[in-house]
Amino acid sequence: MVKFMSINRFLLVLFVFFLCFLSCKNRTKISNTTINYSYNSMGLLVVSLENGKSFLIDTGADGSLIFSDKIKINSTIRGISFVNRKHLFYRRRIDSLQIGNLLIKNHNFIFAKAENSVLKKDTTIVGILGMDILSQKYCYFDIKNQTITLSDKKKQIQSPSFVYSYKLPNQLASDININGNVFENVIFDTGFDSFLELYEKDKEKLNLQVSLEEETRSDIFNNQRIVYFEVPDSMKINNVNFTFPKILYGQKHRLLGMAFVRCWSSFLIDPFEKRIEFYL
User: Fold this and answer.
1) Residue range(s) defining the domain that contains residue 136
2) d(CA 225, CA 108)
């Protein structure tokens, strides 16, 4: 009986070891590297491929995505998700993908059609790099030199001027203080081109003295519409003062975007401490 139990224990240990081996083998692997980025026509960050196509760097996306109707990449299907009755997302594993100097191995990308996206009219952007990839390493954005460095070691810089602590591993959402008022779940989103978006109901809470600015934008069907921004002379976010920030009010999101990013010379995403450090 004792001998039989010992054999079972040995087989159990062997089975667990085998599962760990499979898990390590199939785990996403990201190279330590520095990649160059540029800005597209909307002022968003893109990394170019050799064929002239590019990937959007989107910290507001918790998953990375391939537009299957824009580029063909060898992949293995891992699952299917319904977004609604019309649209399907396929999750597929890509064994190896080179984006600029960044080498990604064994990663599950979402495959979807660009026709369901606001990027459907942009023929150059073929995919999105989201936080599932960017959170694998320390991720340092040098705004001045337009580079992104992914590394196992944290870059040592001076004390940050602004700190943004977030809650979930792949979603950069935080509660922030604006002029003494706390707003919950504001997402830091480099896929959003403006400075700040809040809910329509937040307008009364802020009660700012503002001027109005208008801008023409296109929706996913390429329909033109006028968007109105409220622009106060100044506003404090987490006790840091910003002059003439553009605020967009809507129904769907609270976001800090690329116009906020351009106030800084660099920022560091620390996925282990779940914080973003901004530097002047």
Assistant:
1) 29-151
2) 36
